[in-house]
Structure to design on (1256 residues):
């Protein structure tokens, strides 16, 4: 039957001390890595994902190039020690392929690929540590890494997972909760209010789904603010480093919606 | 709109917030587990009007604490540690013990880890109205969270956490009440750590935390006298070692540590199972474990090693050369050990006892037969105790002083009512007043040095054989919840009370929405006499096309009992209505059960109807389900309906409807029997009560079964099967169904052997159809009751039916063996069974009448509810049976005073020193024991009583006459049925 640990106790606390709608600590690190054009390490609690973006660059295989837009190539690697059980996953592992496919289909409509005809954008995802919410971390890290690579995006994509315990929706599930609850992952583009991805692997009643879906969308906006703050901080740091601290990109227009042009300005 | 926030966890806190450990899986893999937790500053302290905590609206602890304890004149709040709840739950639950209390999360989790029943009681305690308990989530508050240090045991870590919380509370109180300038500082209430752990107390003293032992705390309370008896016996580490204790002999082998046990079970050389005591022989028990066809026998005290009925134990199975057959002897603990002294002077009496027991054991195995050998083994550890409170009598012979005014502490024996339990030793000052009463006793501990478990007195139930005490003890023994319904539950009833009526038909009325108007149908109900909760009614009428329309109308309970309100939760916890001979413990408040939902005649009622179109041969053409409004035309007893049906002068609509139903029912039954349904028998007797008020039984009679019983039964079965199919189709994952697994063939081995050897009748058990046919052939022309007897014995070989959630088991195990139906559920008695209420909700959703409540979509939830319902159902059956037994005893006594009762009986089992017989007229089983040596042939199932002129042989299935008396046990005052053989031989002198 159910696990020995209470998912949501009578005091309204989850097993890790959060309440229903509290997200785990988010950490976004955009320091450059090697020769990558854009890079980000994002952690949600103990789940940590690194994404490196190369491109847009000339496609390696001529046959796959498209004359009017860029080709997206997503590769996912899961480090053997990332999960509790030490396990090597090959590239052809079905779960990994599915993860890559989900990331690709999430970003295809968001990246303005038509700006980069006959080129290729490579997204390399490596999962460093897993404690639930893997897909959400991959998508969020990819979002930030693409932004740091200066690739034109319609918006930052923000993903968050949610589950239902009895009749109570919970947000941002840990691995323990994921194992016990029906769960969804929702990715949205907050500026346009569009939903780019919804996954649901278990059966869930439609009423419960509606509720958790609505909460996840709201949570997406919260993550969006966090991402913007990180991107802005990184940008201003770079601008400062270049010694050209032009005013106007500073803190005062936090409220203005972020535009990719801002990041691509420098 | 709710607020969504991110919990920030500074990296510097990682030491406290991250936990890493390694875990080994069942397959031996090592898994790294990383967990994190978020520490917060908004965990509320729970003290009323605290100036620091923001959310103190729900706080329950009085700001001045409790001023009632003489030790703490400035006010105090208690903070008990885990052991207090593990050992002293009865005290904690007492109405006399209610200081404001802080319950730490650490403590709750430890209790949950150690014992689930105690955890559930703890949870009930938190919610109880008369208690003031605040749950403080100390592990999530940044100041009180602790981490395990290098080399620290989990226990020490928890104790440290508890101390830390206690000292935090005291600091918090002083911070929240900084002295106001110009006012004299008010004395602050203090948080007192309640613990029986001496080491913990010493550490707390060093850290400046107020702490006190439970005993000391209780002793200085006002009602200390009554409360002290509730204290469980102190552990030996707490008492000064006296000479007697030090010299005490070790009687039982030590248990292995749990980790070793679990490892052993994984590796396969140990086995785990429930311990079952043998009711005939207290020196024998068995454990059914997977891997062995037959249960593993545990013979003798040392091998049973302090296991108590229901405990989950780990056992070691002996080498096959040591396997034995179960003893064929009746060994009664009271007679064998009647000279045992409760005041523990073990050494002297010890040898005698062991010798007596050893003799019994050896005698039992003088003639081992290869055929009946069973694996044997011994208990080497306890996985989980399943101790609860037991109904007992005080053994008068164990009292040192029976002077009624004596208040000296005595150690006495309490003999449990259930024969499956050992005697319990307990210390009390009230012993003389408790003599002749039924009392509730809890087992606290069972040491290696103690022959008997030690327990403490919980409360008295009343005089033995007073009906109230017997009734309550029955309910307690079978764990039946019998408290009156609380206010929150009664508030869920319709506000009109008993004036509620079906509103006039109109489109706007919510009651009439999507309901069919069936008020004109000729519907009637058929029930046992005096039935107040009528939950089913029937109708049938011919259709113009030659087919027949038949309908079953069930009380629409789900209209009144809405999901997840207090009434629904209570009904789910009760699971079923319990019927005792003279009392009914309702699942739902009486207003619903016997009035608003009861389909009384000539009253409009809401119903849930199943309506079939059947061919005259009872083939289903179609079936539909609908909510409806009906007005039953009449309510018959089985007898009235039978008379009406058979009376050729009556030809009214109702009578014709009954005849139509009856003709269909006969065809339905024939169809079922052809499909292999079993016609099983269980001993059913009826107690005739003198009058409703005095409820003195005057006689026992066997229940009569009429054609109309079968009529109702057939249609209920048909409705249940139809509904089962419908809800399974609509909700394949969570449909509430009922199944009856086919019994393993080994269950029948003994019966097959007996039948073959004694009567030369083979019994084929390969399928239910074959078994049914085979049972039909078990007839003895000279003895009509023989067939019934075999059926009763066959029924005992079967498994019991159970509710299950359709998504939880494989599709091919859905079948109902006894009914030979591929799918089955319970739909027809929602007033008295909770599973039916769930089925009603699912059916309503399946016909799109109403949406299905979220909880019924959750497999885990349905499983959890059905687990409870299954257990309650089993307990209710046993309670009902025990109640009948009690009244049979009373009736026998009444009879015995007049003439002494001699009845015919069948032998059902032979022992080395006796016979077990079944008295079919009374539906009771009894034992006849012989004091003199007799010859016993276990392979032929016979005993031979030698005598000077001619010896007599008695075998299983033989008909004998027994004299039945009710004899009062001199020590415990409990009445017990005593049987002696009258013919073929008179055993009174044997
Ligand atoms: Zn406070």
């Amino acid at each position: 039957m159910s696990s020995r640990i209470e998912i949501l106790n009578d005091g309204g606390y989850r097993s890790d001390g959060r309440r229903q709608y509290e997200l785990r600590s988010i950490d976004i690190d955009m320091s450059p890595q090697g020769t990558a054009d854009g890079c980000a390490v994002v952690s949600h609690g103990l789940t940590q994902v690194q994404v490196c973006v190369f491109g847009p660059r000339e496609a390696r295989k001529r046959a796959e190039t498209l004359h009017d837009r860029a080709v997206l190539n997503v590769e996912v690697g899961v480090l053997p020690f990332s999960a509790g059980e030490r396990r090597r996953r090959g590239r052809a592992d079905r779960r990994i392929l599915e993860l890559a496919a989900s990331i690709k289909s999430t970003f295809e409509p968001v990246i303005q690929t038509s700006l980069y005809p006959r080129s290729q954008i490579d997204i390399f995802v490596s999962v460093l540590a897993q404690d639930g919410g893997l897909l959400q971390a991959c998508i969020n890290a990819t979002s930030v890494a693409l932004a740091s690579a200066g690739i034109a995006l319609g918006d930052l994509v923000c993903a968050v997972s949610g589950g239902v315990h009895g009749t109570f929706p919970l947000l941002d599930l840990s691995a323990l909760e994921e194992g016990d609850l029906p769960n969804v992952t929702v990715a949205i583009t907050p500026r346009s209010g569009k939903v780019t991805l919804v996954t649901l692997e278990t059966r869930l009643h439609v009423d419960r789904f509606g509720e958790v879906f609505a909460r996840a969308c709201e949570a997406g906006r919260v993550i969006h603010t966090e991402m913007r703050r990180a991107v802005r901080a990184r940008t201003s740091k770079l601008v400062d480093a270049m010694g050209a601290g032009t005013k106007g990109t500073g803190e005062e227009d936090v409220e203005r919606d972020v535009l990719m042009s801002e990041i691509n300005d420098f | 709109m709710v607020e969504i926030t991110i919990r920030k966890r500074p990296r510097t806190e990682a030491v406290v917030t991250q936990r890493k450990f390694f875990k080994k899986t069942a397959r031996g893999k090592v898994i790294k587990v990383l967990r994190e937790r978020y520490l917060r500053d908004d965990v509320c302290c729970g003290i009323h009007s605290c100036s620091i905590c923001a959310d103190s609206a729900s706080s329950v602890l009085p700001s001045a604490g409790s001023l009632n304890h003489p030790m703490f004149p400035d006010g105090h709040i208690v903070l008990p540690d885990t052991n207090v709840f593990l050992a002293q739950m009865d005290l904690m639950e007492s109405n006399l013990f209610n200081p404001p209390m802080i319950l730490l999360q650490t403590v709750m989790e430890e209790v949950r880890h150690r014992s689930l029943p105690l955890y559930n009681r703890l949870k009930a305690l938190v919610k109880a109205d008369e208690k003031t308990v605040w749950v403080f989530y100390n592990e999530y508050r940044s100041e009180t969270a602790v981490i395990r240090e290098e080399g620290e045991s989990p226990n020490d870590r928890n104790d440290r956490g508890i101390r830390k919380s206690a000292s935090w509370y005291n600091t918090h109180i002083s911070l929240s009440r900084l002295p106001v300038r110009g006012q004299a500082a008010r004395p602050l209430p203090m948080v007192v750590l309640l613990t029986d752990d001496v080491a913990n107390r010493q550490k707390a003293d060093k850290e400046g935390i107020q702490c006190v032992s439970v005993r000391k705390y209780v002793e200085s309370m006002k009602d200390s006298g009554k409360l002290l008896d509730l204290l469980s016996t102190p552990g030996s580490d707490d008492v000064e070692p006296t000479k007697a204790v030090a010299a005490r002999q070790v009687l039982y082998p030590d248990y292995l540590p749990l980790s070793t046990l679990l490892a052993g079970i994984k590796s396969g050389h140990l086995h785990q199972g429930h311990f079952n005591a043998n009711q005939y022989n207290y020196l024998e028990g068995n454990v059914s474990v997977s891997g062995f066809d037959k249960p593993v026998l545990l013979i003798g005290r040392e091998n049973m090693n302090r296991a108590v009925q229901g405990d989950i134990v780990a056992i070691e199975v002996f080498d096959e050369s040591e396997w034995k057959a179960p003893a064929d002897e009746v060994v009664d603990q009271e007679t064998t050990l009647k000279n045992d002294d409760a005041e523990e002077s073990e050494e002297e009496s010890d040898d005698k006892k062991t010798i007596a027991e050893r003799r019994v054991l050896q005698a039992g195995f003088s003639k081992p037969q290869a055929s009946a050998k069973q694996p044997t083994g011994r208990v080497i550890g306890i996985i989980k105790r399943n101790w609860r409170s037991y109904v007992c009598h005080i053994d008068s012979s164990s009292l040192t002083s029976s002077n009624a005014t004596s208040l000296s502490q005595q150690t006495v024996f309490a003999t449990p009512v259930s024969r499956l339990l050992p005697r319990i030793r307990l210390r009390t000052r009230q012993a003389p007043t408790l003599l002749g009463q039924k009392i509730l006793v809890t087992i606290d501990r069972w040491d290696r040095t103690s022959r008997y478990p030690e327990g403490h007195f919980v409360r008295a139930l009343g005089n033995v054989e007073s009906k109230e005490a017997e009734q309550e003890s029955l309910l307690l023994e079978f764990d039946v919840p019998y408290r009156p319904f609380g206010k929150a539950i009664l508030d869920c009833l319709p506000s009109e009370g008993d004036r509620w009526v079906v509103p006039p038909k109109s489109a706007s009325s919510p009651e009439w929405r999507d309901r069919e108007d069936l008020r004109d149908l000729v519907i009637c109900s058929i029930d046992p006499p005096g039935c107040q909760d009528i939950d089913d009614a029937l109708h049938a009428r011919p259709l113009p096309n030659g087919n027949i329309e038949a309908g079953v109308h069930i009380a629409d309970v789900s209209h009144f009992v809405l999901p997840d309100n207090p009434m629904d939760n209570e009904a789910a916890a009760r699971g079923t209505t319990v019927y005792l001979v003279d009392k009914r413990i309702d699942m739902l408040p009486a207003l619903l059960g016997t009035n608003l939902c009861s389909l009384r005649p000539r009253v409009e009622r809401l119903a849930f109807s199943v309506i079939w179109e059947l061919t005259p041969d009872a083939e289903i053409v179609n079936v539909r389900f609908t909510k409806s409004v009906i007005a039953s035309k009449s309510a018959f007893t089985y007898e009235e309906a039978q008379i009406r049906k058979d009376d050729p002068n009556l030809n009214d609509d109702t009578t014709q409807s009954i005849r139509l139903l009856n003709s269909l029912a006969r065809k339905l039954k024939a169809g079922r029997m052809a499909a292999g349904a079993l016609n099983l028998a269980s001993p059913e007797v009826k107690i005739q009560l003198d009058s409703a008020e005095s409820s003195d039984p005057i006689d026992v009679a066997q229940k009569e079964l009429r054609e109309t019983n079968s009529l109702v039964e057939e249609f209920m079965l048909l409705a249940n099967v139809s509904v089962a199919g419908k809800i399974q189709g609509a909700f394949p994952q969570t449909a509430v169904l009922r199944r009856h697994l086919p019994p393993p063939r080994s269950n029948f081995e003994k019966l097959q052997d007996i039948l073959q050897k004694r009567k030369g009748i083979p019994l084929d058990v390969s399928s239910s159809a074959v078994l049914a046919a085979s049972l039909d052939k078990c007839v003895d022309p000279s003895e009509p009751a023989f067939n019934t007897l075999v059926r009763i014995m066959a029924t005992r070989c079967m498994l019991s039916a159970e509710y299950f959630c359709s998504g939880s088991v494989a599709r091919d195990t859905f079948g109902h063996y006894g009914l030979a139906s591929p799918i089955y559920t319970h739909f027809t008695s929602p007033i008295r069974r909770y599973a039916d209420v769930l089925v009603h909700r699912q059916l309503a959703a399946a016909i799109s009448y109403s949406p299905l409540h979220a909880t019924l979509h959750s497999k885990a939830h349905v499983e959890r509810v059905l687990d409870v319902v299954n257990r309650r159902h089993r307990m209710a059956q046993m309670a009902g049976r025990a109640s009948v037994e009690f009244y049979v005893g009373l009736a026998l006594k009444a009879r015995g005073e007049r003439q002494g009762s001699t009845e015919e009986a069948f032998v059902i089992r032979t022992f080395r020193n006796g016979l077990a017989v079944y008295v079919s007229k009374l539906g009771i089983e009894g034992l006849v024991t012989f004091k003199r040596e007799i010859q016993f042939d276990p392979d032929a199932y016979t005993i031979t009583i030698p005598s000077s002129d001619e010896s007599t042989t008695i075998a299983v299935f033989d008909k004998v006459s027994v004299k039945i008396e009710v004899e009062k046990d001199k020590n415990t005052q409990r009445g017990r049925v005593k049987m002696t053989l009258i013919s073929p031989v008179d055993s009174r002198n044997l």
Q: What stands out?
A: Chain B has six domains: 1-40, 50-178+187-229, 244-463, 487-736+819-878, 743-798, 901-989. Chain B touches chain A through 42 residues (CB under 8 Å). Residues 859-898 of chain B form the longest helix (40 residues). Residues 236-247, 344-351, 364-368, 691-695 of chain B have pLDDT under 50 and may be disordered.
